[in-house]
Amino acid sequence: KVFEAITEQISDVNADAIIFSDPGTYNIIRKYFPDTHMHLSTQTSTLNYESIKFWYDLGVKRIVLARELNIKEIQEIKEKVPGMELEIFVHGAMCMTYSGRCLLGDYMAGRPGNRGECNHACRFKYKVWLEEEKRPGKLFQMKESEDGTHLMSSKDLCTIHRLRELLPYIDAMKFEGRSKSEFYVGSLVKAYKHVRDAIVDGTEINPEILIIGKKISLIQKLQKKSGRNLRVKSKMLVDAVVKVVTLSLSKGFLKRARKMLRQAQHDR
Known about the structure:
This protein has helices spanning about 1-10, 25-30, 50-60, 70-80, 105-110, 165, 180-200, 220-225, 255-265, and strands at about 15-20, 35-40, 60-65, 85-90, 130, 140, 155-160, 170-175, 250. The chain is of the alpha/beta class. It folds into two domains: about 40-95 and about 155-265, no CATH class; about 105-155, no CATH class.
């Protein structure tokens, strides 16, 4: 009743779209926003095209895919459900659990991620002690580094050097920016848009815009991964410096299937 009352109260808002995750709210939202586009949140952890077909038939216009999908799976979803707009996370924090299934923030601070209140408890510093079975009471503290112990903190997702592979199958890029500064979000959006425009228009890349990593050169990665129309002068290939991102970077699950196949072949 409370949710419906709030929905009715804001029904005169001229929103472009409404993002939701709880199926139980869909009909209520549709009642008061019959013509507004509905976007399905990544918190639903949607991982396959059959699930996406279900939501598409229900009237959902766009879906924010779970981070756990790789490029081949994203391609398959687009081919199987071409009418559904696909939005993916291209940069930012990655959850230690499957998308939409983390209860850590809710358990520790009463801030559930599925309500948009994630407090990044996985990024906190923790003190951990080991106790050997035959030496009860004698504790040994684990230390990861001088900066503390971050047992559950993953690397930040970074897909800027994979945009050429992703762009044919996605309709929007999403940046994780919770608790981040305007400078952080603005710098990343500027860099990704610059690369996106270069791929589409066949123009040159300005290396200075792409220095967003830590002790790695995204420019060098782009030179290797991109086509001939993305030209970067060799004299401008400089080592990246810390400008925005403070954590190590990762391409996440985008190449998961290939990596797992190589590992399986190696194990044989």
